[in-house]
Design brief:
By secondary structure, this protein is an alpha/beta fold. The chain contains 14 helices and eleven strands.
Length: about 325
């Protein structure tokens, strides 16, 4: 039965903020790290992990993602960008390097764009399944023929199915217990299967220049990884096959420098649409070479916007 949004809002109002231990090492000794409006980040004294503490109930429960499905995930600007030919270029290259075929589970699949791109570019190579907590986004994925599993990833058994690859594209920064997500992923992988993760890079050039003005330091991001802490959490159940720093968006850097990183979900979607349009503009192809060079240099020094890691289960 569908629960009305106002009922969800009323229930959330009676809940309290979640107080967390370190999501990487489990420690509870921290120092204050950063404040941004109601968001409070702390740094673990044991392992250095930066994370939000406390966490409001709409983020710890996942209800937030149901609420923003319309204004963000299913907005025309976001959908047009997610389904554009240039979207997921880096992720697809990395994915194909480590998985040439088989069963794929995309956790936090949203509207299904990554799986759709995979199916359209490599027809017949993969069987696929997407899972998410946002019902409207999954409805959209299903309308395009993407199979989905609805609900909490940690509670789903997927009918006993196992996978050759599991992806977490911009997911682990959103969950209260990222370690549990990786443990679950390890249990679902076939021998020699891989897990691919992308998260924002807390040591990026953008964070160093902008600090709290950076738009991706925001309430729904609960975890802020560096190469050290991402490696630490991954090595609990996996061997690291590849770890690198990728992506660079100078438009975000410029806009957040000017405006202080204040934006709505609609504005965030429009920026993604604008960035996608620039990538597809044939008149800007000469500039694309300079952009790629800048991204490559930032990657060498682990200063690009995101971190990606490819993992293989230690039991494989």
């Amino acid at each position: 039965m569908e629960v009305p949004l106002r009922s969800i809002t009323r229930d959330l109002a009676t809940q309290t903020n979640l107080i967390r231990r370190c999501p990487v090492c489990g420690g509870d000794e921290t120092d204050s790290y950063l404040r941004k409006a109601d968001l409070k980040l702390v740094r673990c004294r044991g392992c250095g992990m930066i994370y939000a503490n406390p966490v409001p109930p709409e983020f710890s429960s996942g209800h937030y993602y149901e609420r923003i499905a319309g204004p963000y995930y299913l907005s025309p600007a976001k959908l047009e960008s997610d389904y554009a030919p240039v979207r997921f270029e880096r992720e697809l290259r990395l994915f194909r390097r480590h998985c040439r075929g088989g069963a794929v589970l995309d956790v936090g699949c949203s509207s299904g764009a990554f799986l759709w791109q995979l199916r359209e570019r490599f027809p017949g190579a993969y069987s696929m399944l997407g899972t998410d907590v946002s019902g409207p986004a999954l409805d959209y994925a299903e309308s395009l023929g993407i199979p989905v599993a609805r609900g909490n990833f940690l509670e789903e058994n997927f009918g006993g199915q196992h996978f050759d690859a599991i992806t977490f594209w911009a997911v682990l920064e959103h969950v209260t217990d990222p370690s549990a997500f990786l443990v679950k992923a390890a249990s679902l992988l076939r021998p020699a299967g891989v897990c691919l993760v992308l998260v924002p890079n807390m040591n990026s050039l953008a964070v160093r220049l902008l600090d709290a003005r950076y738009r991706y330091i925001l309430p729904q991001h609960l975890n802020y990884f560096t190469t050290k802490t991402l490696s630490h959490i991954a090595q609990n159940r996996f061997s690291i096959v590849d770890l690198r720093s990728t992506h660079f968006n100078p438009l975000v850097l410029w806009q957040d420098w000017r405006t202080g990183g204040q934006f709505s979900e609609e504005e965030r979607a429009r920026l993604l649409e604008q960035t996608t349009a620039y990538k597809q503009n044939r008149w800007l192809r000469p500039a694309k070479g300079l952009y790629q060079l800048a991204e490559r240099v930032l990657g060498i020094f682990t200063l690009a916007d995101n971190l990606t890691v490819v993992l293989r289960s230690k039991g494989s």
